[in-house]
Amino acid sequence: MSAPLDTGSLGGRTVTRIGYGAMALERFEGDPAAGVALLHRAAELGVDHVDTADFYGNSVANDVIRRAFGDSDAITVVSKVGAVRVDAPVPLALAQRPAELRAQVESNLRTLGRERIDVVNLRRADTGPGLRAEGEQLVDLDDQLAEMVAMRDEGLIGGIGLSAVTADVVRRAVPAGIVCVQNAYSLVAREFEDLLELCVAEDIAWVPFFPLGGAFPGLPKVGEEPAVVRVAAEVGATPAQVGLAWLLGHASNVVLIPGTSSVQHLEENVAVGGVVLDAGQTAALDAVWGDRVAAGIDAPSWP
């Protein structure tokens, strides 16, 4: 099942379509060397980009990435702003104002040990899952984009991305030069299909988070879908691999960032590049969303 990784474009850089999502690096707070070894193994397998945030483990993920790769230009680093770590039952709070976005970029630069971040996603709160903006955190998109563009012009960041947004927000943002969009999306949760189609039309990378569903209790999991289980048995792959392979085949602008703290799961994720689905299998998987809608199980109710 091993095969050379296909490539795509992210912020004007050519990257493998299977990257690494760094949230799982939080678990290496007490053993950063193990996290570094995991990232080095990812690079050995051909992975050349990581998706992170300074609020992952209160800078833990960024610290591991810095230890593993330093400021090497061989690794494309994508981060995000719009939220910060807080000491509270819900350890994340929105920080959407322009000055807060700049402070977060500066913090990411410092903890990553870099002078420039290749892509920075503006994590808004236009849609779930998770936090929704209220009060002083209801910030106009134009004000946010003006600050992001200024930081791009200053050379602090390369490309500008968006996360947790609607199609209308992306349309408004396109003139600013958006390079990627991150929204929750999977084979069993495709309520943002219109936004994916917009990104295809505008040549914007689509980087789905929760690509295997099931991020919150009660939400569907790709690995539990009967059609996925059946196809996995047919091709000799895991259900998770089939779910990721379907995403890669669904649209040419898809770039995946599955995260894990396990070397075995990392290797399985990268091996998705060699999973081949035939036309019949693809059609069966394509039909899953329509079948769910017909049964009244369409869009999840995001927390």
Can you tell me about this structure?
By secondary structure, this protein is of the alpha/beta class. The chain has helices at 32-44, 60-69, 98-112, 141-153, 167-173, 193-201, 226-235, 239-250, 263-270, 279-294, and strands at residues 7-10, 13-16, 20-21, 49-51, 76-81, 83-85, 92-94, 117-123, 157-163, 178-182, 205-206. The chain has a domain at 17-182: Alpha-Beta Barrel (TIM Barrel). The chain contains ten helices and eleven strands. The chain is globular and about 50 Å long.
Question: Keywords for this structure?
Answer:
two-stranded antiparallel sheet, TIM Barrel, single chain, 303 residues, 37% helix, alpha/beta, 10 helices, seven-stranded parallel beta sheet, globular
Task: Characterize this entry briefly.
The chain has helices at residues 32-44, 60-69, 98-112, 141-153, 167-173, 193-201, 226-235, 239-250, 263-270, 279-294, and strands at residues 7-10, 13-16, 20-21, 49-51, 76-81, 83-85, 92-94, 117-123, 157-163, 178-182, 205-206. By secondary structure, it is of the alpha/beta class.
